[in-house]
Amino acid sequence: MTAFGSIETVVDALKSGALDYLSKPLNIEHLKLVVERALKEHREKHLIENLRTLTAHNQAYGKLVGVSPAMQKVYQLIEKIADKDSAVLIEGETGTGKELVAREIHLRSPRNGNRFIALSCVTLPETLLESELFGYEAGAFTDAKKRKQGLIEAADHGTLFLDEIIEIPLPVQAKLLRVLETGEFTRIGSTEALHSNFRLISATNKDVKELVAKGLFREDLFYRVNVIGIRVPPLRERMEDIIVLANHFLQQLSQGKIKDISMEAMLLLTRYRWPGNVRELEHIIERAVSLDTDGVITPADLPDEVRPKTQVERITTESVISPSETLDEARDKAEKAYLETLLKSTSGNISAASEIAGLSRAQFHLKLRKYKIDPDDYR
Ligand SMILES: Nc1ncnc2c1ncn2[C@@H]1O[C@H](COP(=O)(O)OP(=O)(O)OP(=O)(O)O)[C@@H](O)[C@H]1O
Ligand SMILES: [Mg+2]
After folding, report:
1. Are residues 96 and 175 both part of a single domain?
2. pLDDT digits (tens, 9 = 90+) for 144-162
3. In what side-by-side order are the strands of the sheet with 228-231?
4. Which ligand is nearest to the CA of 278?
5. How far is the CA of 79 from the centre of ligand 1 (A)?
6. How many structural domains are present in the chain?
7. 43, 231, 304, 375: which has the fewest C-beta neighbours closer than 10 Å?
């Protein structure tokens, strides 16, 4: 703590390992937040050390790598429902592993000797989606040269996985509903009722209930496909898994050549928001593996979005004020640096930050907008 917050002193302190600095007069709220952050960092380091010693065998359920309580729940649910025939709806953000979960259910079910057929409903126009699902007879339409089996038929005694199910157009939804209600379907251009005994697993990264409310997804179909619901949590809610998955991808992608991810780099990975979830983590490790030169993944091997400026970098670059600036420019720069520092020390907590700043929440938001600062980047 210092009354003279000169840049050199602060930079020296941070470089020698200080977590943060406080200037006088002491603000108790600020101090509490800094202590909280110190404790959090301590817990994180502890967790990283502990998870390092786990063997690969202890970290996975089939192909699903992860040890977090949230994923343990997913594994338990898979265990319970794998041998049933009820329809499963898997919800989760993009890249969370929904397809892996679907495949794991199939593998652990009595259907595993038969096919697992996956269809993404996103890219197909209505007529194509319909003929993919139901198949057609020769001559059913101009291009139908000979009979084609649909995926519903092909999935007989197996599992049909419909990805992005909410993208199915309403007329095809009606047809799918009929199949689920009666177990019967007809190929396009035919009236013969056929049977298929398939298990339906669907996935979506959008909120289906919301789409039902908007009339874009049939409510009756929703109940049919959502007999069992599984929510795959986003990666940012499972810190343990960030650690074990990062190590897992490192071993896999570097074929054992790179042994380690440094503590600093791992802390950055655990703090990032991961909008692209596990898929994004895999890509970032792949990138780091190809950039690395010294056998250890360090912060320098990580992309900018994961590696926010360190406090030292911020202090020494952003808040340097040049004599050629107008007073307004200099003031704006200082204000922006101040807001960023505040958000960092409060981990993006707007209430705490605005209180320390002596501003109302609304005023604080206005300032953030002015400087294009996203508080989410600090959470
Ligand atoms: N728990 C996990 N363990 C190992 N790899 C995983 C895990 N979760 C996801 N992955 C990997 O991340 C990538 C994305 O997974 P997947 O395709 O199952 O996600 P998704 O939820 O279906 O994504 P989208 O919504 O974009 O279709 C794949 O390469 C997958 O192997
Ligand atoms: Mg998918």
Report:
1. yes
2. 889 899 999 999 999 999 9
3. 116-120, 159-163, 199-204, 88-91, 228-231
4. 1
5. 19
6. 3
7. 304
